[in-house]
């Protein structure tokens, strides 16, 4: 029983950190694209 809980916890932790990484990547990408568009539209 304890090992099952540990496995589930580990899987959840891994999925959670992967999700956080993806969100940070998307956020920085969107910010970079927005800044590029802003500079482009300024001209």
From TrEMBL:
Keywords: Coiled coil, Secreted, Virulence
Keyword Secreted recorded: yes
Predominant localisation class: secreted
Subcellular location, record wording: Secreted
Protein's UniProt keywords contain Secreted: yes
Any matching Pfam family: T3SS_TC
SUPFAM superfamilies registered for this protein in UniProt: IpaD-like
GO cellular component, one term: extracellular region
Signal peptide annotation: none
Family note: Belongs to the invasin protein D family.
Protein name stated in the entry: Salmonella invasion protein D
């Amino acid at each position: 029983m304890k090992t099952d809980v540990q496995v589930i916890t580990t899987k959840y932790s891994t999925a959670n950190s992967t999700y956080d990484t993806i969100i940070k990547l998307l956020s920085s990408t969107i910010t970079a694209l927005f800044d590029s568009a802003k500079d482009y539209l300024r001209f």
